[in-house]
Write a structure and sequence with these properties.
- The protein has 333 residues and is α/β, with parallel strands linked by helices.
- The chain has one domain: Rossmann fold (3-Layer(aba) Sandwich), CATH 3.40.50.1820.
- Helices cover 27% and strands 17% of the residues.
- The protein has nine helices and twelve strands.
- The strands form two sheets. The protein has an eight-stranded mixed β-sheet with strand order 2-5-8-6-9-10-11-12, with helices on both faces. Strands 1-3-4-7 form a four-stranded antiparallel β-sheet.
- β3 and β4 form a beta hairpin.
- α3 crosses α5.
- The longest helix is centred in the middle third of the chain and has 15 residues.
- The protein is globular and about 50 Å long.
- The N terminus is likely disordered.
Amino acid sequence: MCGHPDTREAHRCIDTPSPMKLPALLLMSLLLASGAGFAGETVIPLWPEGVPATMRPDAPALRGPVGPERVDARGWVTRISEPRLEVMPAAIDRPTGTAVIICPGGGYAGLSREREGYQYARWLSTLGVTPFVLTNRVGDYGHPAPLQDVLRAVRIVRSRAAEFGIDPARIGVMGSSAGGHLAASAGTLYDHADGRTGAGLDAVSARPDFLILMYPVISMAEGVTHAGSRENLLGKQRTPEQESFFSLENRVTAATPPTLLVHTQEDTAVPIENSIRFFQALTKAGVPAEFYAFEKGAHGMGLRDGNGNASNWTKRAEEWLRFRGLLEIAPKS
């Protein structure tokens, strides 16, 4: 999926020790040396009090430890047990006060963190947006771990908005492919009990203020979903009720945040029907939304050229952000 390597095969990978067990400067050095970071970032652990002990009931990892984390030469990350955020400063000459939490794709098996994480972060930074790249639990963890991680990320960013120089009412979540499902989950399940752990931060709102969804997995319905994402999230023993609940077109309400959708007809991994269903649900609920449906562009296109008009999706996204007032330079305090 997304051109990602098959995680069942052996690849040239870099094993990095658990970030929770390393001093911040040493962690930074390891991340940068392995190609897992980007210049100017700060690493923020999501669970300094300890990562919640949640894992999919049929997870193979229940038979042994998950780590150490692996990052291959293409920035594909697996065996994630210490979820975290990496924040990159917004362009110094145009700080807007807007923040975006980026959820890379990967079929809920791993993360395409370079192509659908760091590259997006660099682009958003040039617009004056403060990007946060999320490294969330995937694979053996399954639900509710990814939801817990993305909602904790929103809560951390909102609770520390002044520190990061952002507006707590201008926090968006962006996701690609399965990361799009996670971002859409943040926009529809932000108040769900499965996203809470009993920590004090649970009191902070986890509702994003807007969503940007790139060729997202939305539905769990047969013939529409991406089967690998569905199995990695819900397991092989999932129920029809679970499939219906995590078909996020069924979770849209009038309180779902304004949303931008980008998808292509050419996508054979995650059919455009996913975005169509979500857009229709948003429209029915009266949620402001725009949907760019392009002809060309394979799944996982990211920022690559050669995808016809779809290669210009960043211009359309910039226009949408500007229209919504999210690129106005924040007044100096």
